Amino acid sequence: MSAKPPTPTGPASQAMSQKQTTAPKQAVPIVQQASAPQATPAKPTAPLTQPLPAKPVPHVAQSTERYHWLGAHLDTRDNVEGARFAVWAPNATEVSVLTDGNGWQHGADWLTGSDSGVWTGFVPGVTHGTSYKYGIRTKHGEVLHKADPFAFYAEHPPATASIVYDLDQYSWGDEAWMEKRSKSDWLHEPMSIYEVHLPSWKRPWDGRRYHSYRELAEMLVEHVKSLGFTHIELMPITEFPFDGSWGYQVTSYFAPTSRFGEPDEFRYFVDYCHQNGIGVIIDWVPAHFPYDAHGLARFDGTGLYEHDDPKQGFHPDWKTHIFNYGRHEVRDFLHASARFWLKEYHIDGLRVDAVASMLYLDYSRNDGEWVPNCFGGNENFEAINFMKEMNTHLHADFPGAITLAEESTSFGGVSRPVYTGGLGFGMKWDMGWMHDTLEYMKRDPIHRKYHQNELTFRSVYAYSENFVLPLSHDEVVHGKGSLISRMPGDDWQKFANMRLLFGYQYAVPGKKLMFMGCEFGQWSEWKYEEQLDWALLEYRFHDGLQRFVGDLNRLHKDYPALHELDCDPAGFSWIAADDAAKSIYTFCRTSRDGQQVVVVVNFTPSTHADYRVGVPEKGAYVEILNSDAEVYGGSNFGNLGAKETIDEESHGRPYSLELNIPPLAIMMLTLDKPT
Predict the structure, then answer these.
(1) Which of 406, 436, 551, 566 is catalytic?
(2) Per residue in 531-550, pLDDT tens?
(3) Closest alpha carbon to 184 in 274, 312, 92, 314
(4) Is 179 a catalytic residue?
(5) Given 353, 474, 475, 519, the catalytic residue
(6) Burial 152-188 (b: 16+ CB within 10 A, else e)
(7) Whole-model pTM above 0.85?
(8) Is 65 a catalytic residue?
(9) pLDDT in tens, 476-496
């Protein structure tokens, strides 16, 4: 699971504007409807190309898209314009809407209760952009000022009010991408993900704290396209009050953060990525939520979204609340949020955070600090069923969209279909690979020969799940240092080790993920308050490392052997993994049609001449990658572009190559077949 920063000592400020105006006092019950809003022509945002109608989403049960009628929605009643409001607060004694128009006075605009616990009403005079909260009187007489759990937009922190927003105004221009995505099978296609924290990727140069979604779209897409990544993964953009949480302590599950602009501007961001062939994945946090007074915590004065019992409802690591997955209203809330981002924002995937903490009732707890399940065990059956239901619906209704689990335990079947007993995620982060590989890489090369099994151990479990190989933000924070700072040796060796690490990541089976800044070897540990040190690209080694990452991504796309069978044991075979004395590994990657890429990895700074490697076919093998190339900052030791086989058996293969092995380097070779 992600290592999160500490929770702030107090909740975010509940500052709000206090403009005094006169507003009519009227409360009219609304008719609860589940039908989706109808699209209207674009007004605030123009698409990049001529808009095409969005592909309809198959019908689903109304409970999974409650955002269509819960929350605030512009409406007209008896020729009076305003908004209808609906909020679930079953234990409240009264609920009203607080706005600038009524001076934020509780009781000025009442909502009407119901047996379902949903309070509804119509408030005249409310328009697009109106800030509001709910005034909720508890059974103890206290009036809580709460943001709307289903709000589409929120005030810029530290202000905490929700904002009425009409989501029917944007016209999409990504029809070609969405059509292509619906036919995509990412398990057999190239996938390399660039993980981004938007606030700190780049900071404005004009004194503003953040770039806008539009500015980020153009700058980020240019960078990602130039390096050949297929997807961007955004650390949480759902609204959050505390910058130091990096977005992982969410207070609004339906609102993109206002730090960078309005919701339609975030739609522009996604649209722009799609029209440039880049998929967008967002981090989504259904495991826990913060204590902030304006948020979900004790929403109507009781444990509504969370368990009342702290043994079930309090997360000791992050000092947050845990969702009560046993309540169908809470499950529906989370289901609706997941669908919302895929449907209304065309998001291509959800990376679900902290899945391990959801699976186990005793996660990070001592004996006596947790409540067993009905069988006396530690599995959280309610959370498990929630994840199965969510994945079943999302995969059925959004073809080509993916769900990825950040899950760090040996729980079986995380990325296996629900009908076979799995959780139904499309992919799972391989935290074991990340840990073992980085432990190996930080060792002095002279000692690596004693740890050869740290890299080969993955073969035991490599196909038990559909894995993503992450080099994520978790590995460059909390005193761990940057990746390059953990590499042994002088500067030349550090950069050679970095190229070797990335080359190895792209050579072994699994989809790829790289955190921003790693691509050019940032020296300092990631700091969420500061932008990346882009000036480093003026230096040869940093620029060479980024060039190498770009070439890795292009090879990853161009050679099916490097991606088609990432999740199938037929796509990988060892040539030799037992040369511990030299810390050399050799293996083959294979495509569906039998194309092979031979990979040779040398984890020491020693060079080797005429090193024998067995290969299956006779002919000239072209060196398609050598991380020691001068253009990357290497010593240019290699095989002059190609090597002919010799008719001698080796490593159980009928032919062999005698290769020059460069220092701290990875080489990839493929048979030069006539076209």
Answers:
(1) 406
(2) 999 999 999 999 999 999 99
(3) 274
(4) no
(5) 353
(6) bbbbebebbbbbbbbbebbbbbbbebbeebeebebbb
(7) yes
(8) no
(9) 998 999 999 999 999 999 999
